[in-house]
């Protein structure tokens, strides 16, 4: 359970956090004393809008960060993982909320 007691001072990653449940999860984590909430999104500019909305709603700045992550791209996953390894140290929770469109089939350049 992600409570104030378990989240205070922690680092959390939330995928699919631009809207809906992921957005609400990221906002909640900001309010319970988490040190860092990584808003992991495909489009950084849209993630920045979500971050601004979270900061406006909570009045808490400097906690949410927007990082690019496309779970359909091996290159993006690798870059995100390398950045997380070098910048985050410990990850206390990973909230997987990203969606996939299984109605569209494609082969990506990177696999």
What can you tell me about this protein's structure?
The chain has a domain at 4-70: NAD(P)-binding Rossmann-like Domain (Rossmann fold, 3-Layer(aba) Sandwich), CATH 3.40.50.720. The protein is built from four helices and four strands. Helix content is 41%, strand content 17%. The protein has 111 residues and is of the alpha/beta class. It has helices at residues 4-7, 20-31, 44-58, 74-87, and strands at residues 11-15, 36-41, 64-68, 93-95. The model has no long low-confidence stretch (mean pLDDT 90). The longest helix is centred in the middle third of the chain and has 15 residues, at 44-58. A four-stranded parallel beta sheet has the order 3-2-1-4, covered by helices on one side.
Summarize model confidence as the mean pLDDT.
90
Total DSSP helices:
4
Largest sheet: 4 strands, parallel
For the record, what CATH class of one domain applies? Alpha Beta
Kindly state the number of beta strands: 4
Strand order of the largest sheet: 3-2-1-4
Q: Structural class of the helix and strand makeup? A: alpha/beta
Order of helices and strands: HEHEHEHE
> At the fourth CATH level, what is the homologous superfamily of one domain?
NAD(P)-binding Rossmann-like Domain
Low-confidence stretches: none
CATH structural fold name of one domain: Rossmann fold
CATH architecture of one domain: 3-Layer(aba) Sandwich
Rg calculated over all Cα atoms: 14 Å
The oligomeric status of these chains comes to single chain
How much helix, percentage-wise, in residues? 40-55%
How far do the termini sit from each other? 35 Å
